[in-house]
């Protein structure tokens, strides 16, 4: 019997307009009504993920920034894991040498040193996911994210890392050149203290070695006394792999990476076709709740 459901956001719970559909919302609430613990497991920062859930009238615990933070539905911190700042400084030097756009996410929010490039990157990424999106609409959305304070502009990351109050959770780099991303990953491979993964075809995410969704999900279920064999995880990309590999029921989105589909026990339809709702409804039907 499934007692916990962990759900990725981008490419999974969210459609290509970055919204939680009514059917996905209804399915999540139906699972919660049946006493199933529904937890979000995302690469996004906690505040941004929490705001998106609130807009959909949902309340869930959140595993954020690929597992570097675990919070209850009320925002209380269960576990946190920061990246060593000296290691982060060395990585920033490598990324700067490669002239690749990078953001860092911390306990004080996200930071960028180039807001114009950030907006260009967001436009490129969204257009890759949704060919019908208008650039003017995406630009307005990107500017709105800056206004909401999800990302702050700084002069350089090295000075940011020297601030004692800053805890570094995740670094994320973007490029339309996938070969360049792969080349940088190889250069970072020798740094054993980190793990490099991705949540999309055109990004690369760096966290502490133990900053993984699977490790965080294990901590979360341990607190609740739920066995991983009684847990379902739904995802689409390689930053979901660690949680998909350890649960009793793993579900890949139809729009997910082929490598992810191969390791999962089940497949659902795409994020544009309410794949999360379908996966949850199947479990509820099997357990006699629908």
Automatic annotation (TrEMBL):
PROSITE patterns associated with the record: COF_2
Note the superkingdom of the native organism: Bacteria
Q: What is this protein called?
A: Cof subfamily protein (Haloacid dehalogenase superfamily)
Q: Which PANTHER family match?
A: 5-AMINO-6-(5-PHOSPHO-D-RIBITYLAMINO)URACIL PHOSPHATASE YCSE, PHOSPHOSERINE PHOSPHATASE
Source organism per UniProt: Virgibacillus alimentarius
